[in-house]
Amino acid sequence: MTIKKALTVAGSDTSGGAGIQADLKTFQEFDVYGMTALTTIVCMEPETWDHQVFPVALDIVETQLKTVIEGIGIDAMKTGMLGSVEIIELVSQYIDHYNLKRVVIDPVMVCKGTDEVLQPENTEAMIEFLLPRADLVTPNLFEASQLAKSGPIKTLEQMQEAAAVIHEKGAKNILIKDRGKIQAGKAMDLLYDGSKFEWFEVDAISTPYTHGAGCTSSASVTAGLAKGLTVRESVQQAKLFITQAISNGFRLNKFVGPTRHSAHRRTE
Ligand code: PXL
Asked: pTM score, two decimals?
């Protein structure tokens, strides 16, 4: 019996719902063996939930990449919060040098619930170094507008326009994720492979407990790819998984509620 292996290059969400923790929990639910290269550690102030971000030194990130990619080997990988231009470039070098396949880029730009300053240089570096190497990029509406350098995305047509621009920048497939902002009561996700637009629509779930949903969603697509599914099949499977996880989100404390990674088990 073999088990498929996936790497996440991402930050640690100490509260456990997003980042590397969400990725590993999700990989586990798909019976994919998860491995990590940690880029940052995010902690929260107990009284205010203000986030503090501690970077991991570049040489330590590289040593982790070497351990996993050279020392073990991977079937798929994803990126999350990368923290700096140097780390983004490093990841792109590893993708090239080891000719890595099934690469999912989750272009994390901000954490929900924080007023953390955007790092525009990271967005530029993701466009230059990661989009051309992405088998799939998974922006939400805000991230898609930043990658496409468009205005705010408010319509289905604008989602398609942004997807086309991001495709031109080199990403093979683009999954733009919406959570009820485009059409009342509907979560409209758009997959674009450079030739056709495909919509994945479900009823939007009204809950405040969505912390880590983006990480969980991109990790579930990565798990599908690791197991040999196509991008489309992986996205379809991931949509079901994340819908169940969000439907069963829960309160962690007065500031945050994550999705429930194990929720799919109840309905199978
Ligand atoms: O959900 C975005 C995100 C990604 N990665 C890490 C995070 C967060 C938000 O809190 O902490 C490490």
From this structure: 0.96
